[in-house]
């Protein structure tokens, strides 16, 4: 795994061949890695937050060269933009990231077995002729967004934030109106496959309505935790 040094001040990336990787992994796990995790380590990195701010969005890009010379690229995101205070990428912390996300989840959540799809994808990674990892983007808890952003995450998250808050605003404007019209709006939004964040907001509001009725619906709408606004310096 080739690792491209981070261009973001205070954010470091360590490849599997570096001494920092081994030390950091043992610190994260609280022990040496078990056999389950070892096959994934050559396709993994550790990102270190050496800044004085909490990271609420981390994007790590993996560029892979297939056995027939075809190039593949994917960016894995860790996103707590709706609840920045819940981010575990605080100053001084380290985050394990594998090119196969199921193994990232195993480390984060303390799992004991990889699912079948994760194991198959890891087998595919072994066939790659080359792999490169880099920090694609970071957003801090104050909303500052930095990085190459090869997949246009900044604009995508801005659109999603606007979409979900617009739906919440529509619901609040209908507070004194018929409940069936509000419910119809939310059901329609749940089926809007072009806007994931709009679906997310609609599901949360419908859940409140089904659990506790009209008052809970509007209480949740008023306190809905939309993603924080991102900005570039």
What does this structure look like?
The protein has two domains: 2-150, no CATH class; 155-222, no CATH class. The protein starts with a strand and ends in an 11-residue tail after the last helix. It contains seven helices and eight strands, in the order ββαββββααββαααα. The chain has 233 residues and is α+β, with helices and mostly antiparallel strands. A hairpin with a 5-residue loop joins strand 4 and strand 5.
Structural class: alpha+beta
Residue share in β-strands: 15-25%
Number of domains: 2
Write down the overall geometry: elongated
Helix share, percent: 25-40%
Distance between the termini: 32 Å
Q: What gyration radius follows from the Cα positions, in whole Å?
A: 20 Å
Model regions low in confidence, pLDDT < 50 over at least 5 residues: none
Largest sheet: 5 strands, mixed
The helix-strand sequence is EEHEEEEHHEEHHHH
Number of strands: 8
Total DSSP helices:
7
Provide mean pLDDT, rounded: 93
């Amino acid at each position: 795994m080739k690792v491209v040094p981070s261009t973001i001040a205070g954010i470091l990336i360590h490849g599997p061949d570096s001494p920092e990787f081994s030390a950091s992994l043992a610190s994260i796990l609280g022990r040496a890695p078990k056999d389950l995790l070892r096959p994934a380590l050559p396709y993994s990195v550790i990102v270190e937050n050496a800044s004085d701010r909490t990271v609420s969005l981390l994007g790590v890009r993996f560029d892979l060269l297939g056995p027939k010379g075809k190039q593949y690229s994917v960016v894995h995101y860790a996103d707590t933009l709706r609840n920045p205070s819940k981010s575990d990428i605080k100053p001084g912390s380290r985050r394990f990231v594998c090119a196969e996300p199921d193994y990232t989840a195993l480390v984060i959540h303390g799992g004991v077995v990889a699912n079948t799809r994760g194991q198959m994808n890891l087998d595919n990674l072994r066939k790659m002729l080359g792999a490169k990892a880099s920090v694609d983007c970071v957003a801090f808890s104050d909303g500052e967004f930095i990085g190459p952003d090869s997949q246009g995450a900044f604009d995508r998250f801005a659109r999603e934030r606007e979409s979900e808050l617009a739906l919440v605003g529509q619901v609040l404007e209908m507070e004194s109106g018929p409940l069936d019209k509000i419910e119809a709006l939310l059901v329609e939004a749940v089926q809007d496959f072009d806007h994931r964040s709009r679906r997310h907001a609609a599901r949360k509001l419908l859940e409140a309505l089904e659990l506790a009725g009209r008052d809970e619906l509007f209480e949740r709408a008023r306190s809905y935790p939309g993603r924080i606004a991102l900005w570039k310096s």
